[in-house]
Amino acid sequence: MIEAAPSWLEWALQQPRRSHVTHAEGTRLHYVSWNAGDTHKPGLLFAHGFLGHSHWWDFIAPFFTERFRVFALDFSGMGDSGHRVEYHPDCFVRDLAEVLENAGIAPGIVVGHSFGGSRLMQACAAFPELISHAIVLDSYFKLPGDTLPLGERRPAPRSYPHAATGISRFRLIPEQDCEPWLLDHLARSSLRQTESGWTWRFDPALRKLRSAEGDESMLNRITVPVTYIHAELSAVVSKDRAQRIVAAIPHARGPITMPQARHHMMLDQPLALVGVLRALLA
Fold it and tell me: What one GO molecular function would you report for this record (predicted)?
């Protein structure tokens, strides 16, 4: 039996979120807002990791609505966004640009975790006019000569006869400790029902996605303010790699290390992450 969730989590999950739809290169893009009507506030967009979705921010984003107009997107092929016929290297960067413009929050602050943070850095180089500050959370950037991290490899998706079976099979990649009530929330929000049963909410074709060879010159061209946050116990990004990424970006800040945090820092250090982000955005 899962232990009772803390009051802060119950509060965060009770905050109403609204769905929005736009299109990027003909593909349906889904994103959510917690307070879209607060048009007098600056915009803040959260971008999830590979094969994730906007629900990864359900227990983080509501803590920022007092000062910001807060959104989170589903990258194409993930969550409730449509599937692409082909996933070219720049399509996820264009997803970010489209949501920023459609939500009316450009230039806005963007927080990107892992895969989302890597695409955020690319977006800073491609669409600097749309981003006022990029906060990158433990994101891998493949520099020339590097090998892919183990976290890039994904098991084949499958259908389950019951939602409960799928929930029990939910795993983080890379695996790490996580509070059971957060893992349960993510497992439930990661499933969708189909004619053949319950399956994960991402396009199976994404498993064949290859990370583009790193282009350090792209990092050199970034003029947008970038802050890089590194998880001390990350299985994806070493401290040395975080330092190399920051060194390649002119005027970047960091890496700021979150003590005892693992790669999915919002799952093992959720309130600490909120505190770090609030300090950076103060």
Answer: monoacylglycerol lipase activity
Q: Which two tokens stand for residue 131?
A: 């981003």
User: CA 113 to CA 137: how far, in whole Å?
Assistant: 5
Domain formed by 7-281, architecture: 3-Layer(aba) Sandwich (3.40)
Do residues 242 and 270 touch, judged by C-beta distance below 8 A? Answer: no
Dist. CA 165–CA 147, nearest whole Å? 34
Give 76-109 pLDDT, tens digit per residue. Answer: 999 999 999 999 889 999 999 999 999 999 999 9
Contacts of 100 (CB under 8 A, 6+ apart): 43, 45, 106, 107, 108, 110, 127, 130, 131
Tokens of 216: 């350090």
**Pair of tokens at residue 254:** 């960091």
Q: What is the pLDDT of residue 152?
A: 45
Distance of CA 34 to the CA centre of its chain: 16
Tokens of 47: 């971008």
Q: How far apart are the first and last CA of the chain?
A: 39
Task: Give the whole-angstrom CA distance, residue 263 versus residue 233.
Answer: 7
**Burial group, residue 37, by CB count within 10 angstroms (0-12, 13-18, 19+):** exposed
Higher-scoring residue by pLDDT: 137, 206 = 137
